[in-house]
Amino acid sequence: MMKRLRMAFCGAAALVALAAGARAQELTVGVQNMAPWLDPGRDFSNVGSQHYFNSFDPLIGKDHKKAESVWEPTGVATSWKQVSPTVMELKIRQGVKFHNGATMTVDDVVFSLDRIINFTFAPYGIRKRDTLPNIAKVEAVDSETIRVTAERPEPLFETLLNAQQTMIIPKAYVMSLSGDPTKLEDSDYEAFALKPVGTGPYKITEFIPNQRVVYERFDDFWGERAPFKKVTVTRIPELTSRITALKNGEVDIITNVPPDQIDVIARDAKLKVESAVTPLFHVVIFNTQNPKMTRPLRQALAHAIDRKTMNEALWGGKAVVPSSHTYPQFGPLYMPELNTFEYDPAKAKALLKEAGYDGFEIRYDTGSAYYTNALLAAQAIKEMWAEVGVNMRINVDEAWTGNKPEMMSRNWSNPMYYPDPAGSFGTMWSPTGNAVSEGRWKPDDTFKAAWEKFRFSTDLAVRKAAYAELMAYIKNDPPVVVLWQPYESYGLKKSVNWKPLPGHIPYVLDFRAGRASIVSN
Questions:
Q1: What is the extent of the structural domain holding 473?
Q2: DSSP annotation of 271
Q3: What are phi and psi of 187, to 5 degrees?
Q4: Confidence band for 12, pLDDT divided at 50, 70 and 90
Q5: Based on the domain organization, do 381 and 478 belong to the same domain?
Q6: Max Cα-Cα span within the chain
Q7: 171, 194, 217 — which closes off a domain?
Q8: Residues whose CB falls within 8 Å of the CB of residue 516, separated by 6 or more in sequence, listed in order
Q9: What is the pLDDT of residues 163-199, one digit of tens each?
Q10: CATH assignment at residue 401
Q11: Quick check: 218 and 239 in contact, CB under 8 A?
Q12: Same domain flag for 476 and 500
């Protein structure tokens, strides 16, 4: 009798262990937002950036455990050499497979960059302007080598060839998705964004726009094996629902946990919180082309915002309030000595008088919950502007209004798309940046000259001096006020080992080898 009981107990224990092992092979994540499409070359949204690194590879890899840029041959390129100030040559890894089974060739690598450089699909034209404006052409030298040529000396070759927008996709697959398989058509790119294929350790086996993406381990991945057999990322927009799902064991990780909910999770013995200051700025932007938004008025509004007090109230003092538009990830171009954004309510009042402000309403646009603490920040800014005599109305609208002529002020975010001021400030406010293309910012020749020196000089001292000029210009004629780098938190089961890494762009959910695991009990 005892022998039968022991055998039954051992069998049950084995089944439990087997189930736990199978469970450890899968990961479930609840996110606040989900992308409407997935194409790394087209995208620059905070929502999209969560998803690409698991399924796509850049040309040049980097050490994501370090905030500074340490380049590594962990991408599609095994080596590279800058052969002149305008030319970079790269050796391409052989035997790499796409998720559809095709072998990657230099033609695919050339295509992945050329679709942006010589764009025919309008959305890629935006990425040409804000990410690759200096890249003139890319060509195959032989079956293992490509050559990238810039129009002018390029100080950022490695940085640009590590960017999400230059990740590698399969040319023949894209061409086959619609219409004539011998031609590249807009409909091919639209179809690719719904059925994306890359070379990374996970293939995307299901994508429901705005709802869910499912990754499965790609066994033919050229690099180290992915730790999970399956990863399911599902949109759970309501915060309380995300926390409930985590507490009930329905998901292993949740995103976008605001500071006032950290203790709710941390007090649960089965759960924990991982947090990090994100390489992204929450900002206030102004429509400099709106006739009412004059320079002294915008200066006054900028000086009236007490960012440090807001940080204490909304983030518990854990966000980073910078003195200028600068990140530690910029390395030698990190310039905290600049003093671009200052709280000075007395100066704000004097500038309002100079502006002839007569109490007219200033509309401030915000979504309700797209950014953590967005609405609370808007309410705080309204109070601060009221203290200096400004009449502000909060307009809650989930639609983007930054390209509307009637827009006056609103919140936004300014991510670090790559670790250089050109990849954050420049993406938005360079002469070819988003603020110019959307019509709310028109820099003059003085700004353009300083930008040219900053962006294209290969002399670090010249770049630093020129960036200081740009920040002085922004202080004097502000299209933007940087609020803070948010302190973003994630809720996890205690059995899950994962945390955001400082070398990634914002919000990347990196589940590659060595980055995440589940410990079985």
A1: 280-484
A2: E
A3: -65, -25
A4: very low
A5: yes
A6: 96
A7: 194
A8: 27, 227, 228, 496, 497, 498, 510
A9: 999 999 999 999 999 989 999 999 999 999 999 999 9
A10: 3.10.105.10
A11: no
A12: no
Residue 407 has pLDDT above 50, yes or no: yes
Q: What is the CATH number of the domain that holds 119?
A: 3.90.76.10
Whether 293 contacts 355, CB under 8 Å: no
Report residue 44's pLDDT band, with 50, 70 and 90 as the boundaries. confident
Average pLDDT over residues 289-310: 98
Q: Are residues 321 and 362 in the same domain?
A: yes
Domain membership of residue 434 (yes or no) is yes
Q: Is residue 153 part of a domain?
A: yes
CA distance 246 to 214: 18
Tell whether 16 is covered by a domain.
Answer: no
Cβ–Cβ contacts within 10 Å for residue 391, how many?
13
Query: Helices 460-476 and 445-456: crossing angle, nearest 10°?
Result: 150
**What pTM does this model have?**
0.89
Residue 203 DSSP SS3 = strand
Contacts of 296 (CB under 8 A, 6+ apart): 351, 352, 354, 355
Provide the number of structural domains found in the chain. Answer: 3
| Cβ atoms within 10 Å, residue 371 | 20
Instruction: Mark whether 212 and 233 lie in a shared domain.
Output: yes
Instruction: Indicate if 298 and 364 belong to the same structural domain.
Output: yes
Which is nearest to 132 in space by CA: 511, 396, 430? Answer: 430
Q: State mean pLDDT over 209-230.
A: 98
Rounded to 10 degrees, what is the CA torsion of 332, 334, 337, 342?
160
